[in-house]
Amino acid sequence: MKYRIALYAVLLAAGAAQAADQHYFKQLFYTRAQQESLLALELDSQIYAASRDDYRDIRIRDDSGKETPYLLEKRVEPHSETVHVVHAGSVLDMRKKGANGIEVILRAEKDSPPTDGFTLHTPLNNYEHSVRVYGSDDGKSWTPLVESAAIYDYSRYMDVRNQDIALPANRYRQFKLVIDQATQTHQAERVELTRALLAGQEQTRSEQVQLQSVPLRIDHVDFWHNVSKDLPADDKKFAYPVLDFKATQDGKNHWTVVEVTTRRQPLTRLSLQISERHFSRRATLQIPIRQGMETRWQDIGTATIEVLRLGLQREQAGIAFPEQRRETYRVLLHDQDNPPLTISGVQAEGNGYRLLFFAAPQQSYRVYYGSETAAPPRYDTSAISASLRAGYPVASLTTGPEKAVIGVKSGFDWISLLNSKWFLGASITMMMLMLVWALIHAGRHMEEMHED
Predict the structure, then answer these.
(1) How far apart, in whole angstroms, are the C-alpha atoms of residue 215 and residue 102?
(2) Over the stretch 349-398, which tens digit does the pLDDT of each residue have?
(3) Which residues of the chain have a pLDDT value below 70?
């Protein structure tokens, strides 16, 4: 009996020693069942902040300290997209409306699906028109569908164009498009300059700007309906809080520099909250890369940050990038000669991970993490994978507060020492001293040989 007690004490001590290298742990809470359960632990910001990049240091242990195998899974979700499918329709009539407007009468074919919108194809550039849309069953009584739809082309300023008119849900077959200002006046690109000279001296100068009336030409109209298309499952995205951000100005390079501090969550997108409106800036996202004694910034993503309110609603303030787990990121906004933008906040988005494991009946568990020396675990996860494929129910759990492991003994981090600038500087200094000593010793030896 004494030997059994001693053996049990040794096993408990061994389990405690295995967990002693972990800096932190959390108690896991779930509804205990009378039979084995498949549980899922969602990793949170505290675990991300303290765990290794590849999660090799995470361990799940039961009350006795026994290690429990788990499957690390990236969260995914079903993904679909809506596409426009063109169906048959025709133009019945077009008539002038007032001094400068037009009405276009359209009809969808009898057996076609309900019309969700139109695309007006025109060869014109640099225009903006407002379109009203009505629907009818008989071509006599018309019901308003769209009060003001904008079609535009701003290619003179940037590559922004829209020819689509979306409709609310309807069952109409006939439609009327009303454009009150179908002809617009544009200023010609050329200016006629006239100068009057007397004895070689300019006496008068006049400039004439020609105005051109440009009617909206519609080559043809596409009728379309929306179809949802299923795509392969995509990574499920989660919103993560950032610890801090700081925006400064680099006058030399004409940059607004935004440094962002996070808790090492698996991020894939950073979005800036900007107070101004009507702007467009090129943005570059960077991460610090340590190389010996120096740290350089490496580009990992670029985007155009813009907010436009020129008859359209267009806003894009995010920069996407491959998944990263970093404490620090840097965003460069290329202001050029424009006034700096006001950064009021930063939002982070990224992937999510969870641990799946089988829980024994009436057993409690803890998750340990935060080791600098742990080797990657090698678990047999075939039973967990097979259960997921078979649709076995997965129970969720909650975690208690993060606690420090008492008596943790971290091994000395030789790799960090060798990569530190202090060690490299000391090594270079020592090598220089040795080189100087060797040269002095060689010089004395040559003097002694010369005297002999």
Answers:
(1) 10
(2) 999 999 999 999 989 999 999 999 999 999 999 999 999 999 999 999 99
(3) 1-20, 185-193, 208-212, 309-313, 407-427, 445-452
Token readout for 397 is: 């759990």
